[in-house]
Amino acid sequence: MSWFTPTSPSSTLANPKASDDGGFIAPDRTARSQCWEGRDSFFVCLEKNGIVDSVKEDAKAREHCAPELKDFEKVCASSWVTYFKKRRVMEHQRDLTIKKLAAEGATPMEGSSAGGAGAAALRGK
Amino acid sequence: MRRTPDSTNARLIPASISIEWYERPDLTNSMASPEWTRAINTKSSASSDPFSWQAGLLFLLAGGGLTFYFRYEKARMSRARIAEANKGIGKPLVGGPFTLTDHNNEPFTNDNLKGKYSLVYFGFSHCPDICPEELDKMAGMIEAVKEKHGEGVLRNVFITCDPARDTPQVLKSYLAEFHPEVLGLTGTWQQVKDVCKAYRVYFSTPADVKPGQDYLVDHSIYFYLMDPDGDFVEAIGRNFTVPAAAKVINDHIADWKGKIDRS
């Protein structure tokens, strides 16, 4: 796949290639990590400019982080771009909620799977 | 020989009762002798004294041993209860009949899951970050189970929630990057919808997706552990680390009393 051309992934996320049996080839590890790097550099720029929600504040994001955003949209599929932007907002709000709860004195609860043995394994028994 | 009681004792006995007193020369006075007293003291060895250190140590060892045994049995019983809770008469909580096609284009049904423990994960190959992360974890779990129980004990299956884009060829190349033992399953939209329903997996892909469309699929993120009878055992969520998840699987495999087909 992209072993011979490491700089340009053969199956870029932006232009998925069709497989022989009617499907669409998924991005491989290299393509995924390139997309994640593009996302990370875009987010670093957003962080510097204090933008959390780059979907709502799209104009502002484009103004301050135009080159990073362009690169991000090049290496990632558009559905992934939207997903990562929304996820950033969700994670920010979740962190705020956790901070608020911790300030109110809540202690973190360990999540458990559907099953007592799972919870016990999580506690390290 | 008879000896009548002396006057002090006679006062305590009612006149209607006659008591015979016998002399016991062996018991009188000899026990009060110094030789006898010394013998009693030196005979108090460890085994007759309840508060010696050897007795204390034995007590602690027995107590500790019993505590460990009870804890082990309790854990085993709670695992057995979980495993058994999902068996029994009637419709299973998770799991059921399904028909799909594997990534070598061979048919695959729920009967193919029997014989070994199975780890089932639902996802799709165009997943941005969660499925790759979970599949890397799955590879770690597979290796941890192999380390503990050897080859051929666990079957590993990836069922796509995106049958339009995830054809057998796509799945085969996608999964090869994670672990050679993960088998990809796909099918028609209806077949995938049915297996998601059987496993209570949230499935949101529309039926009429146009080829080449760019979209994401929402799906629940769990590993489903099935036993060699094809029955559901436990669901392992995202919050589990690889060692914790591997421990859950390894413990269930160790508890299994029946035969596991290692072929």
From TrEMBL, chain A:
Its main location: cytoplasm. InterPro entries: COA6_fun, COX6B-like, CX6/COA6-like_sf. It comes from the Eukaryota. Keywords: Cytoplasm, Disulfide bond, Mitochondrion, Nucleus. GO terms for biological process: mitochondrial respiratory chain complex IV assembly. GO terms for cellular component: mitochondrial intermembrane space; nucleus. Transmembrane segments: none annotated. SUPFAM superfamilies: Cytochrome c oxidase subunit h. Residues 1-24 are annotated as: Disordered. This is Cytochrome c oxidase subunit 6B-like protein new16. It comes from Cryoendolithus antarcticus.
Automatic annotation (TrEMBL), chain B:
Cu cation binds at residues 127, 131, 219. InterPro entries: SCO1/SenC, Synth_of_cyt-c-oxidase_Sco1/2, Thioredoxin-like_sf. GO terms for molecular function: copper chaperone activity; copper ion binding. The keyword Transmembrane helix applies. The keyword Metal-binding applies. SUPFAM superfamilies: Thioredoxin-like. The chain crosses the membrane at residues 51-72. Pfam families: SCO1-SenC. This is Thioredoxin domain-containing protein.
